[in-house]
TrEMBL record:
One Pfam assignment: ELFV_dehydrog_N
Keywords, in A-Z order: NAD, Oxidoreductase
Gene3D superfamilies for the chain: Leucine Dehydrogenase, chain A, domain 1 (3.40.50.10860), NAD(P)-binding Rossmann-like Domain (3.40.50.720)
Glutamate/phenylalanine/leucine/valine/L-tryptophan dehydrogenase C-terminal domain span: 142-351
Family: Belongs to the Glu/Leu/Phe/Val dehydrogenases family.
Protein name: Glu/Leu/Phe/Val dehydrogenase dimerization domain-containing protein
InterPro entries: Aminoacid_DH-like_N_sf (IPR046346), Glu/Leu/Phe/Val/Trp_DH (IPR006095), Glu/Leu/Phe/Val/Trp_DH_C (IPR006096), Glu/Leu/Phe/Val/Trp_DH_dimer (IPR006097), Glu/Leu/Phe/Val_DH_AS (IPR033524), Glu/Phe/Leu/Val/Trp_DH_bac/arc (IPR016211), NAD(P)-bd_dom_sf (IPR036291)
Domain of life: Bacteria
Length: 354
């Protein structure tokens, strides 16, 4: 897959290399129509460069739409560092990456993602000020998964109201695929709301944690078993592509609402879900709590203000589901239309000469 052969219409794609530190990174800016691009840095051992490029292009586009629907005056971008974070992450590598972020002059703000943490952002910030998602000790918000999970829970409540008439998961069974940073917090919210939780994870450490912390959670061996389980809501909270044609064909849930990015393996999956009567709460709508949290740092972080903004994901999800019904399109298409409308209408104002 080449950059110019992509039809994603990105503004800028930057390949970054520092051989001495081992850095191999790609920064993709999809849109700055609403403001500087904001999106996290994923550190992942991709099988090939083409896989890294595909991921960063898809993720950066998703960030543009996510930030638009979250009501932020920020565009969409993303970065990937190609490598194994457990073996290759180092201070020189992270600082070299920070130099490349700085070279963009503020067109791109970075933050945490899979394989990177607030401590890593503190290191990157030693080379550039265009970093958010930093530790509390350095004036940041800390772990962005807290409000990511809160936003997913709000989106799930809105989907439950749309499907069953009441904005609660009480008495429902929710399948959580992935008990990482977000899945753990989401599980807590669901249990507090009175839901039953069935879960799985590829990490034995995560499974041991949930056994010790929430023994009432039922565990299954893998995501395939979870999809086939007798659940009301399916919550993908790991890597993307969880929903393909085969998974949709056997999925028993009536709602899909989770934290993972790019949950649909291809654009037609949203229609497959709709044809089976499964309500899909678009991932980039419901998982926007994290970006709302880190974006708030740019103003000077206030947790209560950020949580209030993340709580509004309930209203945004409700609006999108209603629009989908009114226009006869799947929720993902309705969400895209709202995001594109805001990027076009607000972006146009930036052409007015002052």
């Amino acid at each position: 897959m080449g950059v110019f052969s992509s039809d994603a219409d990105h503004e800028q794609v930057v390949f970054c290399q520092d051989k001495q530190s081992g850095l191999r990174a790609i920064i993709a800016i999809y849109s700055t129509a609403l403001g500087p691009a904001l999106g996290g840095t994923r550190f992942y051992p991709y099988a090939a460069e083409a896989d890294a490029l595909h991921d960063v292009l898809e993720l950066s586009r998703g960030m543009a739409y996510k930030n638009a629907l979250a009501g932020l005056d920020l565009g969409g971008g993303k970065a990937v560092i190609w490598g194994d974070p457990d073996r290759e992450k180092s201070e020189p590598l992270l600082r070299a990456y920070g130099r490349f972020v700085a070279s963009l002059g503020g067109r791109y703000y970075t933050a945490c993602d899979v394989g990177t943490y607030v401590q890593d952002m503190d290191v990157v910030a030693r080379e550039t000020r265009f970093v958010t998602g930093r530790s509390v000790e350095h004036g940041g918000a800390g772990d962005s998964s807290i409000l990511t999970a809160w936003g997913v829970f709000q989106g799930m409540r809105a989907a439950a109201e749309h499907r069953w008439g009441s904005p609660t998961l009480s008495g429902r069974t929710v399948g959580v695929a992935g008990l990482g940073k977000v899945g753990k917090h989401l599980t807590a919210h669901l249990l507090e709301d009175g839901a039953s939780v069935v879960a799985t994870d590829v990490s034995s450490r995560a499974l041991d944690w949930v056994r010790a912390t929430y023994p009432q959670v039922n565990l299954v061996d893998n995501a395939d078993d979870l999809i086939r389980s007798d659940i009301d809501v399916y919550a993908p909270c790991a890597l993307g592509g969880a929903l393909d044609d085969d998974a949709v064909a056997v999925l028993r849930a009536k709602i899909v609402a989770g934290a993972a990015n790019n949950q649909l393996s291809h654009p037609g999956v949203d229609k497959l879900l709709a044809d089976r009567g499964i309500l899909y709460a678009p991932d980039y709508v419901v998982n926007a709590g994290g970006v709302i949290q880190v974006a708030d740092e740019i103003e000077g972080f206030n947790f209560d203000r950020a949580k209030l903004r993340a709580t509004k994901i309930f209203d945004t999800t409700r609006q999108i589901l209603a629009l989908g019904d009114a226009e006869g399109v799947p929720p993902a298409a309705a969400a895209d239309r709202l995001a594109e409308r805001r990027m076009a209408e607000v972006g146009r104002l930036r052409t007015i000469r002052l």
